[in-house]
Amino acid sequence: MMPPRTLVATTVFWEIFSLILFCASSALAQSQAANEMPSVTQVPPEAQASSHFDAVAATNAYLAQIPADKTARSDAYFEGGYWMILWDFLYGVAVALLLLNLRWSARMRDLADRVTRFKPVHTFMYWLQYLVLTTILVFPLTVYEDYFREHKYGLATQTFGPWMVDQMKALAVNLVLFGVLAMLLFGVVRRVPRTWWIWGSGVTILFAVFFILIEPVYIVPIFNKVTRLDDPKIVDPILSLARANGIPAKDVYTIDASRQTTRMSANVSGFAHTMRITLNDNLLRRGSPEEIQAVMGHEMGHYVLNHNYKGVMFFSIIAVVFFVYLQWGLDWTLHRWGAKWQILSVGDTAVLPLVVLLVSILGFIITPVLNTYIRTQEYEADMYGLNAARQPDGAAQGAIHLGEYRKMNPGPVEEWIFFDHPSGRNRIYAAMRWKAENLKLFAPQGSAAVLSTNADKK
Ligand SMILES: [Zn+2]
Fold it and tell me: What spacing in Å lies between the alpha carbon of 236 and ligand 1's midpoint?
């Protein structure tokens, strides 16, 4: 989905602000290498196939290759993210309460009333005002979290200007997409005031499926350039792996993620034959062939294990839960404070900040459940990927690279609450456990234990 916080800026405000930020960000600019995890070109001795191979010792040997300062940095970034979840939540609650208690929401509805009484357009006019106002109110947090904090940890590559342009694009996309969703949902509430929560869930689920379908083709290219990869040295092994696993991919794509970030990643998107495999350019640039194979095996796991369809099923359940809760929550709150906030009913567009408030409360509470659902699928994809690609050392390297923005070695409760992927230690351990059971695939020592360097790849 789009970044939730977008922004808009009026001219004078924007001029002054961007000048200040530009100066500040230049001062912050630093070499990205400061953040980079090591690229392991040699499998550590403890992780090489031998008669005394031990998965735990192999895992520790991989972890020992990460310098202490990199670990400290990555931990600080990721743990800071725990607090950001809390600040985002509290800030969002404060904004919603402001809009309700100062009756700004009611005023925006009255203003939309003056433009038109035609309900769908009225809803859109309200949405336009709401989005612009909340974007401005949340802007200080957005700029800290998405710009300064990312630069501080060497994860962002954009200067302030292009970052702002992306924010404006995201604002436009949110305006249209969620404007349509708002028109549909308020239409449903007005048409079927008793059973709106059932039909509302249905509309939301269909909207999510529609979004998944259009995202790779129509939304992603707004922000990044997607190109078809044609280097046979990279594409051929990936397509071979795909064929071996019954995956109908004909092409492999790459995306210029380095425009915004140093993060390495890949993904599988779409359904059935709209399905496509995309590697980001950071992975292509820094990943060894073994690592790329391991990552591709993981991504293919998502496809073969039908994680997309299961994800839609899971989202559907969550959507129904949210709508039942909303029906009850809106009833309860409007009964008490509806008159004070000048909100007439659930079908009144001025109710939107209250909807956002209630949704964010439940969303905040169930964050660990959502994380655990996703993390479980990621673990399944890891298991599939190890069996498919047979690159446990490539997988270990991948886990280390991802440690640039994800804590490597958390406690079990911490992992359960905050991690939407298995931790680096768990991923390396799973890879080494797989290797321990498949030692016959690896030469006891020597050539097979050497991972190619980046120089080899080119
Ligand atoms: Zn995954």
Answer: 21
For 239-253, what is the HEC assignment?
Answer: HHHHHHCCCCCCCEE
- Asked if residue 284 lies in contact with residue 254, where contact means CB atoms within 8 angstroms, the answer is yes
Cα(271) to ligand 1 centroid in Å equals 16
Residue labelled with tokens 């990869």: 229
Tokens, residue 238: 């990936």
- The Å distance, Cα 426 to ligand 1 centre, comes to 14
- Residue 457: name the closest of 289, 339, 334 by CA: 289
Characterize 40-61 residue by residue with b for buried, 16 or more Cβ atoms within 10 angstroms of its Cβ, and e for exposed.
beebbebbbbeeebebeebbbb
Per residue in 220-255, pLDDT (tens digit) is 999 999 999 999 999 999 999 999 999 888 889 999
**CA 192 to ligand 1 center in whole angstroms:** 40
| Spacing, Cα 412 to ligand 1 middle (Å) | 20
Angle at 435 between CA 429 and CA 440, to 5 degrees: 165
Chain centre distance of CA 116: 37
| 164, containing H or E segment | helix 160-191
| Three-state secondary structure of 294-319 | HHHHHHHHHHHCCHHHHHHHHHHHHH
How far is Cα 453 from Cα 43, in angstroms, rounded to an integer? Answer: 11
For the chain, how many residues are written?
458
Phi and psi torsions of 192, nearest 5°:
-125, 75
CA distance 409 to 415: 9
Beta strands in 6-148 (DSSP E): none
pLDDT digits (tens, 9 = 90+) for 288-338: 999 999 999 999 999 999 998 999 999 999 999 999 999 999 999 999 999
